[in-house]
Amino acid sequence: MRRTALRLGLLVLVLVAPLAAVPSYDFPERRPFAGDRWENPYAGWRAPFLKVNLHAHSRAWGGLTAGGSSAAELAQAYADRGFSALAISNYHQVTHLEAPPLPMIRGYEHGLNWSKSHRLVLGTDEAVGFDFPISTRSSRQWVLDVLRASGGLVGLNHPSLRAGHDCRDVEALTGFQLFEVHNAYATSLFEWDCALSAGRLAWAVGNDDAHAAREESIGVAWNMVGAEGATEPAILRALGAGRSYVVRGERGRMDVQVLGLEVDARGVMTLELDGPARVEWRTDGGEVRQLDEGVQVARFEAPRGARYVRAVVRTPNTEMVLNPVVRAGSWSSPLATIDWPRTVGGWAAWLLGALAVAALMPRRPHLSVVRAERRAA
To answer: How far is 143 from 139, CA to CA, in rounded Å?
Structure first.
């Protein structure tokens, strides 16, 4: 019985031992957007927007992952369906194609853990290989810090899937610039509003998360990006500035498109579409403040106490999620920092725990016999 308990203890120790290296973080409090002006990510931009998918999987790692098509087949399928650019985001691996049929964005999906706490990394050549099978909020922050240091844009993939990054997480964590609100397997608009309400400014993205080149897997969710051209630098600049919107539809079809969004000095917002649609104006926490039915031009005046405003456009076949217009002027981006006294105390506790386990380990009888025989000789 004692030996079984020790073995179970050792197994748990092996699984959680990597957490011993993780520093403890001091997470900043909620810091809602504030200021006397509105920051509009679409300011001065008029259509066109480029159709881009940022999260899809090809066959990788010798077939161990769920990708069912080669990278070339997957890229050709997106090119055939009118996409302007694609990121193939295999797990912990940046995928390169020699002669791609459409512009490619370097990227990968980071995450090898049971809780589905996955991250999207774009614009880098090297993948960070490690992750924690069992994670804590501090370990998730440490991973985000490491990914940011590696370069490129970092986002949270499908946060609501298995509560990989739940509301409490996204209200505390810092250092992510993108937030996957629509995915073929999960919708995370609630979690996004949690982050925005806490002053964590992250721009919405939506992706198929396709695992094969099948027709029904492509065009579930995608991004319309206001980039100067279909190149990786231009697309990443636009995504980092929030000049994009998310579309959820079917097989890449959409009924209307966004032409532009402008905001005047009084906070009056004007959204222009190329066809009639229903427009929802949402503020803090995702609360619907105004509905405009069957309009091509929708106007909304931000309430005095609102910290951010975001628009959702609906048609019979599509849903479009625009990035928020936020209060600015007296707000700065929060940053989680390492709590060194708590970190050192935690490391000391880990060391004492390891010594205690070692002291409880049973002696091996055969070693005792060998020592006795040596003494007798």
So the answer is: 6
Give dist(CA 166, CA 58) in Å, integer.
Answer: 28
Neighbours of 84 (CB within 10 A): 22
- What is d(CA 138, CA 168) in angstroms, rounded to the nearest whole number? 13
12 and 51 inside one domain:
no
Mean pLDDT (the chain, rounded)? 92
359 and 249 inside one domain: no
What is the residue range of 237's domain?
27-337
Query: Is 77 in the same domain as 8?
Result: no
On whether both 44 and 7 belong to a single domain, the answer is no
pTM value > 0.85: yes
- Residue 188 belongs to some domain of the structure: yes
User: What CATH code is carried by the domain that includes residue 224?
Assistant: 3.20.20.140
Of the given ranges (235-244, 295-304, 367-376), which has the lowest mean pLDDT?
Answer: 367-376
Phi-psi group of 277: left, alpha or beta (phi > 0 → left; psi -120 to 50 → alpha; rest → beta): beta
SS3 (DSSP) at 94: coil
Q: Note the pLDDT tens digit of each residue in 255-303.
A: 999 999 999 999 999 999 999 999 999 999 999 999 999 999 999 999 9
Q: Indicate if 370 and 317 belong to the same structural domain.
A: no
Q: How many domains are contained in the chain? A: 2
Same domain, 93 and 176: yes
Instruction: Calculate the dihedral angle through the C-alpha atoms of 213, 217, 218, 224, rounding to the nearest 10 degrees.
Output: -140
Which amino acid belongs to residue 1? M
Residues 6+ apart with CB under 8 A from 15: 133, 134
Position 250 pLDDT exceeds 90: no
Which amino acid is present at 59? R
**Cα gap 288→200, rounded to integer Å:** 20
Query: What one-character DSSP code corresponds to residue 324?
Result: P
328 and 367 part of one domain: no
Using the predicted structure, report yes or no on whether residue 356 has a pLDDT greater than 90: no
